[in-house]
Amino acid sequence: MEMYRRTFAEINLDNLRHNIRVLQTTFPDAPFLCPMVKANAYGHGDVQLARFLETLGIQHLGVCLIEEGLLLRNFGVKAEILVFRGFDREGAEKIIQYNMTPVVSSWDHIEHLESVASSPVSIHLKFDTGMNRLGFRPEEAQKVFDRLWQNKYIRLKAIATHLFNGEDGVDPNGQSARQLKTLDQISKIFKPFNIFCHALNSAGILSKAALLKKGVSKDHPLFLQNWGLRPGLMIYGYNPLPQDNPLDLLPVMSFKSHVGTYRHLKAGETVSYGGTWKAEKDSVIAVVPVGYADGYHRILSNQSSAVFAGQRARVIGNVCMDYLMLDVTEFVQGKDLADFKDAEVTLFGYGSDGSFLSPEELAKLAKSITWEMLTSVGERVPRVYTGLDASFIAEEIGGQ
Ligand SMILES: Cc1ncc(COP(=O)(O)O)c(C=O)c1O
């Protein structure tokens, strides 16, 4: 891969395989295990990860957009692809043409499918049990059943909902528990279709894993059914729960760069646009070729740190579109700067020295969430695949 500036996202396939194996062994009987690879697989490279996940026995993949599904199909992904976002008539045609599975969440969707289907088409149905974003209302369930039951082409395979507060998953009286009970009720209406149900995102899955670990009695709504699983964040190595992670997950992405140049500042001089950081003493500044256009949020200016030479160096001055600056004075003092030429900088993830800086920490500083830190890593940042199966990616697909 051509890379003229050494800024990249390292994607560790061994860690991804580990996370998937943990899921497969914790829930060996799940009726549905559908890793979410929408939004470029949370920034990790959707085609590469989808193809790799297939080698691990994954048979279902979740995307948001039809376009995302088309890309996967065009790169040879054979797994069942669930398209979670809505669609119009043209979208319904594409979904059918490319053998994808629509997650139907409105009467319009049913109408579009009815108007274009001329052979059996599998669908999943989404119910709104509290998120108030997409899906049929629970009270519409019987009417939806009646409509689908008399359609000769539409084959209902599953019904689904989305937890809007999965963080309360372990609470038997929480919002998630209420949502699961509602979906369980709805599922009774659809029994004649021989459906299964899916509802658990990472927070739901990890809540269930936590209960399993504790040996909690199985009357919790997380055990009402053998719920299908739609893991997103957790397969990339992170735990959205406020509690400790009940599963041993390993972060997959490390966002890295290398120092472009050093500058010597006199006390009183400032750094970057607006001069928001002023040197209190003579200082050495590392200029790192990564900026907000690469997904390093500007709100982190003068807030965060990055790992430089195995130590935490403060991000100083305003983060620019293409650069950020680190105060490395104390780490290079009395040393030959030539020894730090092209030094590695870890923005998050693992450094080559074994250090780890979590994107969760950056998310807090940026008043954001881990999902956003991962998905923000920019298009112009090459993804570099590492691990035992990296050659599979290189041979089958190539880099980004
Ligand atoms: C419908 C649906 N299911 C599952 C997920 C996965 O969520 P998480 O990344 O929290 O596991 C998402 C992500 O937003 C989603 O939209």
CATH class of the largest domain: Alpha Beta
Query: Which molecules are bound besides the chains?
Result: pyridoxal-5'-phosphate
Q: Count the domains.
A: 2
CATH architecture of the largest domain: Alpha-Beta Barrel
- Uncertain spans: none
Please describe the biggest sheet, giving its number of strands, its sense, and whether it closes into a barrel. Answer: 10 strands, mixed
Pfam families: Ala_racemase_C, Ala_racemase_N
GO molecular function, one term: alanine racemase activity
Cofactor: pyridoxal 5'-phosphate
Family: Belongs to the alanine racemase family.
What report would you give on this structure?
This protein is of the alpha/beta class and 400 residues long. The chain is 30% helix and 21% strand. It has 2 domains: 31-236, TIM Barrel; 253-386, Lyase, Ornithine Decarboxylase, Chain A, domain 1 (Beta Barrel). The strands form 3 sheets. Strands 1, 9, 10, 13, 14, 15, 16, 17, 18 and 19 form a 10-stranded mixed sheet that branches. Helix 5 (89-97) crosses helix 6 (107-116) and helix 11 (359-365) crosses helix 12 (370-376). The longest helix has 15 residues, at 175-189. It binds pyridoxal-5'-phosphate (PLP). Pyridoxal-5'-phosphate (PLP) binds at residues 36, 84, 162, 201-203, 230-234, 240, 371. Pyridoxal-5'-phosphate (PLP) is lined by residues 36, 84, 162, 201-203, 230-234, 240, 371.
